[in-house]
Batch of 2 targets.
Target 1
Amino acid sequence: MSRDARLAAHGAASTALALRSDRGLRELLDAGTPLGAGIGGRTVLLDVEGVPVFVKQVRLTDLERRPEHARSTANLFGLPAYCHYGIGAIGSTGFGAWRELAAHTMTTDWVVAGAYEGFPLMHHWRVLTDSGAPLPEELADVDRAVAYWGGGSAVRGRIEGLRDSTASLVLFLEYIPDNLHDWLDVRIGAGGDAAERACAMVEDELRAGIAFMNAHGLLHFDAHFQNILTDGHRLYFADYGLAISSRFDLSRDEAAFVGEHGAYDECYAVNHLVNWLAVALYGHPPADRRAFVDACAQGTPPEGVPASIAALLLRHAPVAAAMGGYYRAFQRESRTVPHPLGTIGPVAWPGATNSVDNSAAGKDR
């Protein structure tokens, strides 16, 4: 879709939604096509005057609804910063609906201003009251989830707040049908030039999109391939449930956390890319995948794949090996395991020089 057509659809949907009452929006949601429900909220597909609209309903807790907290981007529950990592064996609770709204506001403004196209537009948002919703399966055992995420009262307060909430922040977003996981799987299955072109586009778009977000103070923290959308020409970074920005109302510790994690998104993304390709190309289960990534990190060329994809795997395997070691320690040992970002070095995007010492990759594992 051209930029002009995209903005025209955005304008039409935005106006139509803004003109509906709360009751009218509820009726529209009730008539929509359910897409799913998960830790981030319930999703629905709507038709708004011929424009397909993706809806995400994010639980809004009573604490967030207090007048003094309306639209606040502060860490209202006082959650530990490690809850930003989207890598736990049990999903994180997220840091609140207002932060997610703020991230969508920023990214939509960037698209409208022509600064960067790689985000789904937010057409409208509304707070709608309801009779409540059950906790997602991952958090349903509250004691287990609290214990996993450190056992603190802040985590318990957040989960119980979600459980007891009687309202949702409803986000009406641009509908981009394909996520990167499904789209890339088809291209890899086709093999040959299609696979090579797709991998080249994905690598370039990951670099460009993450560089833009991070340069503007936004850290995504959960850029796996089901949270990234594509039209086959570019990537669109979506789902900001774990995102944080230097422009949020941050505590001193949170500001330091943002400053320390400027390289996290790109390391996360290339780790996901390497491991995803190890499964898509070779069908490796976890143990074999780890051995494969280790071998690539040591410079062993992968076999049976096009040269450009082999080069991509060799380029990013050192970071993937180090990140994989951290993931396993985080999931199995402690949420407070120190992150190795300071020892990984920059991601080796095409044309860049990778400062990772391959012989040391993954020593912490």
Note: The CA atoms of residues 296 and 314 lie 5 Å apart.
Target 2
Amino acid sequence: MRQHRLISLGLLLVLACLGPARGAAAEPLIVSGAASLINAMTEIKVGFEKAHPQWEVFVNFAASGQLLQQIEVGAPVDVFVPADQETMDRAQKAGLIDEASRVDFTANDLLLVVPVDAQDVSCLADLGGDKVGRVALGEPDAVPAGSYTRQTLTRAGLWERLEPKLIYGLSVKQALDYVALGEVDAAFVYATDARLASRQVRVVANMDGHKPIVYPAALVKNCPRQDMGRAFLAYLQSADAQAVMARHGFKTPQPAP
């Protein structure tokens, strides 16, 4: 519980420093977004503010599980954008979001990557070899990319075998940093993250064996800025926002069969 309080306090201190800007409303719209969205969502924030100059947006980025913890302890969040359905399902089950506002707006892929000059890994099974000592991924119980990785490795029958080699990052970005700096022999990251380090990492394979990586968004229940929040959710689905997502390597989510 102390950790939860510290997480919430950190967000509250940041929000306390925010004030009116550019003639915007007295309080900005608070969006909590998954760490893997940082570049695309920052650009979308700018586009939304240009389309709605009377409003201002503040985006709080962290691992999806950490963002949910913040909401659970009462952080003043208006829109929740995790990187997986499971985290949003947990928020919905706990009565923390407006279920009717929930939308799926983008999708991603999970990749196995290695340092750009590495030659010892050419497929998933190679991770079990003696030449591979450390493999990075997001912490599976808090980072969706880590959860997707655990699903993949479990289905491939490799999870228990590789577990002693696994290095957990606090976010998928940290897993990417580990492999880009050569601190691990391989890592599991999103396709959008691998693009950011194309000079430092090499893609080995596109992973399957996990649930579709689809990003949802929803209003936090009883958030004070309902109109702004609904406008932001609508903007996420607009052609302008979808073009931004595509430029950053995200995909259009496929309808459920």
Note: Residues 1-9, 12-25 have pLDDT under 50 and may be disordered.
